[in-house]
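2024-03-11 09:14:02 DEBUG pipeline.ingest accepted 1 chain
2024-03-11 09:14:02 DEBUG pipeline.ingest length=77
2024-03-11 09:14:03 DEBUG pipeline.predict start
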Amino acid sequence: MCHDFRQDKVGPALSGVSSRWNNDTEKMKQFIRNSGAVIKSGDPYAKSLYEKWNQSDMPSFPDLSNEDLDALVHYLQ
């Protein structure tokens, strides 16, 4: 609902998302799990997303298992 692969929606398009995170899959998983914490950590890309998207952070997904996050990041690559 919030993302599409080809175009921006409520959030950015997912095509090329891995390269925008410099292929840092651990940072991607941290952002998916709790974007607010990554933004507050001072991560430059996370902060730029926050600014671009009207100072809104992505909802947190703390209940996703490590296996779920691995599968999601693999799918996005």
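2024-03-11 09:14:41 DEBUG pipeline.report The chain has one domain: 17-76.
2024-03-11 09:14:41 DEBUG pipeline.predict end
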